[in-house]
Each structure stands twice: as C-alpha cells, then as structure tokens.
Specification:
This protein is mainly beta. It has three helices and nine strands, in the order H-E-E-E-E-E-H-E-E-E-E-H. Strand 3 and strand 4 form a beta hairpin.
C-alpha cells in the first residue's frame, strides 16, 4: 500500500488563502489548532470571513493609530505623579529634566484619555514575528 508520511505544502500546492491581503503558513499535519495550513491577513487588512484554517477573505482594515510607547505627562511634584499613575503597570520616575512621569512597564503604553497603562500590539510595534514573505504572522 501507499504510505502517508510525507507532508504536503497546501500553501504551495492549493493556494487556499485569500489572494488579496492574505498569506498562508504551512503547518504540521498533527497541529490540532490549524492542521495543514493557516491563513492570515497582512498588516493593513483584516479577516472578513474565516473558517478552521483562519482567514478566508481579507478586507482593508480601518486605519487605527497605534501608540507603541508613550510615557505619561510630566509633573513638578512626585506626589502629584503618584496620584495619577496606575500602580498595576506603571510607576513614577524622575526624568532627566527633574520632572516626574508615569512610566509604564514594558509592553504597555500610557493612555492619557484613560490615565492607565494599556497593552500595546507588539506585532505592529516591535515586529517580533517573521514577515509574511518569510512565512510568519502574529
């Protein structure tokens, strides 16, 4: 009989992912979450429809301004900074100019509207993943 021990690269053979704004990553056949392959959308596009393999259609994403890293406003007194800085993910620190600022921990940015340290999107800000051309996605 025929042995089924060779992995087929569905991305190269079938091209199952969206042609516009999408890309494909070949996955191991035993990967339970996305067996065979995974489809995703490139930055600037978002999944319009999806199935067990990820995006089936990608459309232009609404433009969102992403703040990758921002510290809070400056205060002349440490007590004032302490009262405004969220303690869970931020801490007041004296800067080089002698003012006090709420500095968020790594992976967070200060949101002046809410007065909180909010999670940043590392895929947009730091690009920790290989590019789509290299077969990566976040």
């Amino acid at each position: 009989g025929r042995e089924c021990n060779e992995d087929i690269d569905e991305c190269a053979v079938d091209r199952p992912c969206p042609e516009v704004g999408g890309f494909c990553v070949d996955r191991a056949p035993w990967n339970r979450e996305f067996p065979g392959y995974k489809c995703a959308c490139i930055p600037g596009y978002e999944a319009v429809t999806s199935d067990e393999h990820g995006a089936t259609a990608c459309g232009p994403q609404n433009v969102i301004i992403v703040t990758c890293r921002e510290d809070g406003p400056e205060y002349s007194r440490e007590e004032e900074c302490d009262n405004k800085c969220p303690y869970q993910r931020g801490d007041c620190e004296e800067n080089d100019d002698g003012f006090y600022q709420c500095v968020c921990e790594d992976g967070y940015t200060y949101n002046e509207a809410t007065g909180d340290c909010e999670d940043i999107d590392e895929c947009i800000c730091d690009s920790p993943c290989p590019s789509a051309a290299e077969g990566g996605f976040c």
